[in-house]
Amino acid sequence: MVRRLACLAALALAACSAAPAREAASALPRLVSLNPCTDAILAEVADPEQLLAVSAYSHDPASSSMDLAKARQFRATGGSVEEILALRPDVVVGASFMPPATAQALEQLGFRLERFGIAPTVEESKAQVRQLAALAGHPERGEALVARIDVALARAAPPPGAPVAAVVWQSGGIVGGADTLVSDVLVRTGFANMAAQEGLRQADHLPLEAMIARPPRVIFAAGAHEANEDRMLAHPALSRIRDTRREPLDPALLWCGGPTIVRLAERLAEARRTR
Question: Of the four listed, 120, 122, 222, 231, which is most buried by Cβ atoms within 10 Å?
Fold first, then answer.
């Protein structure tokens, strides 16, 4: 590790010495994002030329939380120290679960590293939007995105009445339980999260037997747009549950906040209106 850091430091000094003076004097920071959730927010609040790269996750349909065409307007990075060093950003935006060795190497090379976790509530996501917009030097764009989120949630607010029992069920019976962003948005759009009521949390499993014993009104099938794509969702016992319907839910809407909240609120409100 020491030898590798020495080599990387030498490369960093060479890169810095070759940097044009106009780049050094730039008022707005150049950013590299290694987190698909911060990718989506920074693509909204930073200038395109500021965002030097987004995470490779955002170029992958299975893991992106943003529009692929928009994501692919930016370079993708796998997050290696060598890649980041070649890009020479002013700020590296990573995830809270970044490997410690990578974080240590970046900090020892003098990079400013800002780490963000997965926001478990709408309010915490809005706080992250504001932090990232301020980091990019465009706080007004953060306020504009927060306003869009507030408008979307207001439009998706339910009419008076009892909430509709629902569960977000992924392949294998994984649920979005308590203290998750999707649970917060479910409640705000007129649903009661059955998984949270059962005491389940993020990535816990809801057994088929529990689903049958206490069926919800709506099963949001995340990642299985057709029942036969998932063995549990295709189980014949589910077809015998009366007054329960299944709604497809794009898994890209489950984990990230920021602009994703707008799309999630619209989708849940649509499902509630068609019940």
Answer: 222
If asked whether residues 269 and 175 sit together in one domain, one would say yes
Q: Does 4 map to a domain?
A: no
Q: Tens-digit pLDDT profile for the chain (275 aa)? A: 444 444 444 444 444 433 443 343 358 999 999 999 999 999 999 999 999 999 999 999 989 999 999 999 999 999 999 999 999 999 999 999 899 999 999 999 999 999 999 999 999 999 999 999 999 999 999 999 999 999 999 999 999 999 999 999 887 788 889 999 999 999 999 999 999 998 898 888 888 888 888 899 999 988 754 444 566 666 777 777 888 888 999 999 998 999 999 999 999 999 998 76
* List of residues 6+ apart from 130 with CB closer than 8 A: 139, 142, 143, 146
Q: CA–CA separation, 252 vs 261, rounded Å?
A: 11
- What is the number of domains present in the chain? 2
- Whether 149 is covered by a domain: the verdict is no
Residue 78 lies in a domain: yes
Query: In CATH, what number is assigned to the domain containing residue 208?
Result: 3.40.50.1980
Question: In angstroms, how far is the first alpha carbon of the chain from the final one?
Answer: 58
Do 40 and 113 belong together in one domain? yes
Residue 167, in any domain of the structure: yes
For residue 88, what are the domain limits? 29-117
Phi, psi of 132 (to 5 degrees): -70, -40
